[in-house]
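Render this sequence as a predicted structure.
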Amino acid sequence: MEAMFNKELKPTDIQHRFSFPCRALQYVDFAGEFSADLRVKDSSGELRLIRCRKRVHGDYAKPELSKGWRKYVTDYELRVGDRAALLAEEDHRLGSQFRIEAKRKIILFGQEVWGDLPRAN
């Protein structure tokens, strides 16, 4: 299992689309297109289809998650400051290529730690 990215969420990530580092593009097969539907397993074991698009800015493509991302945000009640990670992890039984995780900063025994977020609804 290899982390494609791990990012603290900003307002745009919550309200519109989730942009992430260009280096993660190496994990996505766009097959010559500008978007690809990723088969993603969430922490509850549910299979989700989340679209990954490439927005072209000059000489480089900026990747972002769009269709399916906002439903994930709602289902896990994500908010600004939470973290999201996408990991390259195949589950042949489920047919997924990736796993997505959401974390929130909590205080545990006086220390700040990142705790896993369960699905809210």
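Summary. The mean pLDDT is 88. The first strand starts at residue 2 and ends at 8.
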